[in-house]
Amino acid sequence: MGRRSDIIISTTNGLEFGCGEASLSDDDFDTKNIVDLGLKTPKIMHDMFVQLSVAVQNRPEEVKNLQVIGLVFSRFKLRMLVMDCPKGYVCRLRCTRTEAFSGREEFLGEEFNQVYSLIWRAKEICKETERVIGSFKNKITDDFADEDIDRILLPDSLHSPSRN
């Protein structure tokens, strides 16, 4: 994609379904955490979403079913972002609540279960998106009537200015 991310979730054929950023800071208001959660991860996710939209030839019924995930790790905390395009003209970004490990033994099982269920949801979203793309590629389409098919064209993300 041209951008660096700590984690890229992809298939062997190059389709990317999600990304992740990690930091060692515990502070939610640390500059790196704010930039990762509010700028970097959503921008990478949008680029991945545009790439997946092109993979389904920008067809509205498939684009509306695509989702891309972003995971933001900060020391013992995990947060998941989900990007989709339910109406077909603007991408929506949703964020889960922060799941955390407190480090206390009496809460370890419950906290592990919450973090694991969040990761499981991310996996299921990726599998569903892969299924949408796979079913699109397995469809037999009539190439002669291609001009009549509506398309959703999402613009690429704006490029960040380079530092001097």
What does this structure look like?
This protein is of the alpha+beta class. The protein has one domain (7-139). Helix content is 37%, strand content 21%. The protein has helices at residues 31-55, 60-63, 108-138, and strands spanning 7-10, 16-23, 67-74, 77-84, 92-95, 99-100.
Topology:
Layout: E1 7-10, E2 16-23, H1 31-55, H2 60-63, E3 67-74, E4 77-84, E5 92-95, E6 99-100, H3 108-138
Parallel strand pairs: 2-3
Antiparallel strand pairs: 1-2, 3-4, 4-5, 4-6
For this entry, give a set of tags.
21% strand, 164 residues, alpha+beta, single chain, 3 helices, globular, six-stranded mixed beta sheet
- The oligomeric status of these chains comes to single chain
Number of domains: 1
**Series of H and E elements:** EEHHEEEEH
What's the gyration radius in Å?
18 Å
Instruction: Report the sheet with the most strands, covering strand number, pairing sense and barrel closure.
Output: 6 strands, mixed
In short:
The chain is of the alpha+beta class.
